[in-house]
Amino acid sequence: MKELQEITGWLPTTKKEVEMRGWDELDVILISGDAYVDHPAFGPAVIGRIIESEGYRVAIVPQPNWQDDLRDFRKLGKPKYFFGVTSGCMDSMVNHYTANKRLRSTDAYTPGGEAGFRPDYAVAVYSKILKSIYPDTPVIIGGIEASLRRVTHYDYWSDKLMPSILETSGADLLVYGMGEQPLKEILKLLKKGVPFHQLTMVKQTAYIRDQSKGIPKNKNWKDITIRSHQDCLEDKKAFAANFKQVEQESNKVFANRIIQNISEKTVIINPPFQTMTENEIDASFDLPYTRLPHPKYNKRGAIPAYEMIKFSINMHRGCFGGCSFCTISAHQGKFITSRSQKSILNEVEQVVNMPDFKGYISDLGGPSANMYKMKGVVQEVCDKCIAPSCIHPVICSNLDTSHAELIEIYRKVDEHPKVKKAFVGSGIRYDLLTRSYNKKADTSIDDYMVQLLTRHVSGRLKVAPEHTSAETLKIMRKPSFEHFKEFKKLFDNIDRKFGLNQQLVPYFISGHPGCKEEDMANLAAETKELGFKLEYVQDFTPTPMTVATVMYYSGCHPYTLKQYYTPKSKQEKINQHRFFFWYKKENRDWIKKRLTEAGRPDLLRRLLGSDKKELCPQKKPTSKTIPKLPGKHRSGKPMSLQDDSSENKIIYKKT
Fold first, then answer.
1. Which of 13, 171, 233, 331 could disulfide-link 139, Cβ–Cβ 3.0 to 4.6 Å?
2. Taking the CA of residue 130 as centre, how many other CA atoms within 13 Å lie in the half-sphere pointing to its CB?
3. Whether pLDDT at 520 is above 90
4. What single-letter DSSP state applies at residue 249?
5. Phi, psi values for residue 71, rounded to 5°
6. Are 215 and 185 in contact (CB under 8 A)?
């Protein structure tokens, strides 16, 4: 009986748990591709707690079996208002496959790390099942997988253009981006008695309707019509041109409504809500999470993704980097939403009082750890901006890049008597910390570097220059590699001054659109000359709704329609990736042959010409250094997915 009473701390997952709450009907039922972890870093839990906080009866069905008699989809019956469907914290295809489309053997969001508990294209599969069983019950889709597929998009795994996921899933409504604001509006309208099919004016939602019905009028919104799905199928440049419009609207404070035709239907994408206020994001993080996986998993083993973030604190959302290969801004937005210091410190208090807390906070971070509280100095300037990045090609003169408030939080967490060490596991934007790039930086960047390196690094600091080629970096919307060299000098100086013996770990990408094999050879040579033997590297994976993916499919840049070389074949991608590991014996003869054939004896000398000279390997943390703790993706999710096809660790950007 005690166990049954304790289980009511979680959202119900079974009929028995629903009955324990005295409910005979549910208002909303959530279907998720992840195991249920009641923690603010797990989107399905956040959505469930938001619905609960609004006074509705909600339950969650995690990882339903889609291959049997579908009893998991029937076990809680039909909800009063709607089903909510998400693939979970990750795109199901990125979750399942490596960059070379090899099936992964593990799933970090499943107990025991077991694979096989969610289908490919999970959102569409779940939605179709629900519509077949309950054809008259509305289905709302959301989360990363749905959000990035709201318009015509390139699907890397099937190697073809796909229409909006609203068309392929049969869902009634799509919530894109972070779902708290639109969800509250939907619930409020439904409670007032507004029929579901009339929910056409909710911001940050999309829906599909027959063209014969026309477009609902809204005098406060302007409409833009992008090229139809059929046009995109027939003309790759039409698809590329569409992306520019979609990305610009996604990054506006006051965006337009987007219209796209699919055969005899029309996809209508309403403009987004404005960035959440501090009070709004605090309210989301301050909900009564248990911060634990549901007890039903106790005998199935640990959930790897949870183990990596259980003692971490996410301090903000959004990223204004606008990197061409990253989907954070497309989903979370480019404007930073920061929690209050009070909310963050309250969560620290919860973490330090967890029974198995040993004194180490694994991450004080966010999508980019050092963007906390950063925003435009003059809001009116931001209101008119359509740029996808605030820091490329230069740092915006209107951007306040002070690290002062972030340093204050670090120090207050450090002062907590139960905290031995609070690490920053999320990636930092090193370009914000170099005066060669951040020319208007105040003195806080110097204080931040010292605070970070002396108090918050677990032996290794991860940063992401991504490449060395000027042309490739321009396409990536990343700064010149010269600024990384400047950052390395800063790192080394502080490291020596304080006797830290720490390691700088750079991340790089191979196979990115615009990158040639020669560029990879030069990358290998430049990083060798800086003393690196690369470890954290990845092959570019095309994911929906990024500049790089549009280039991969169309061959041209969506903003200029200029043609670029893109490595697409498996062999081209393997060849580029191989240059990362020039120091492996099995690669030396191959590299000699490739560079000789390319007529680049200069690169050959730089890369392999010093056989007798001992190369300077990356420093390894000493035994006295606190063991390395897991880091996070720029989206705030665990960096845990290892490519099974290679011995090296290949970290994939979270889509």
1. 171
2. 31
3. yes
4. H
5. -65, -30
6. no
Give the phi and the psi of residue 265 in degrees, each rounded to 5: -120, 170
CA nearest to 417, candidates 362, 500, 348: 348
Strands (DSSP E) found in 389-510: 399-400, 421-422, 460-466, 503-510
Whether 358 contacts 338, CB under 8 Å: no
Tell me which residue of 285, 249, 288, 434 sits closest to 366, measured CA to CA.
285
**Digit-coded pLDDT (tens) for 134-189:** 999 999 999 999 999 999 999 999 999 999 999 999 999 999 999 999 999 999 99
Strands 421-422 and 360-361: parallel
pLDDT bin (cut points 50, 70, 90) of residue 619 is: very low
Of residues 443 and 610, more confidently modeled: 443
pLDDT at 615 over 70: no
Domains and CATH numbers, the chain: 2-205 (3.40.50.2300), 311-608 (3.80.30.20)
Q: Mean per-residue pLDDT for 248-270?
A: 96
Asked whether 314 and 284 are in contact (CB, 8 A), the reply is no
pLDDT, position 3: 52
**Lookup: tokens for 66:** 């889609």
384 Cβ neighbours under 8 A, 6+ residues apart: none
d(CA 31, CA 624): 46
Integer-rounded Cα Rg, in Å, for the chain is 25
Cα(413)–Cα(349) distance, integer angstroms = 9
Could you tell me the sign of the dihedral formed by the alpha carbons of 634, 638, 640, 643, in that order?
Answer: negative
Q: Compute the distance between CA of residue 308 and CA of residue 366 in angstroms, rounded to an integer.
A: 14
Check if the beta carbon of residue 325 is closer than 8 Å to that of residue 653.
yes
Structure tokens at 129: 């099942």
Q: Which residues pair with 510 in a beta bridge?
A: 539
Distance between CA 603 and CA 394 in Å, rounded?
A: 30
How many residues are recorded in the chain?
655
Of 93, 31, 28, which is closest to residue 57 (Cα–Cα)?
28
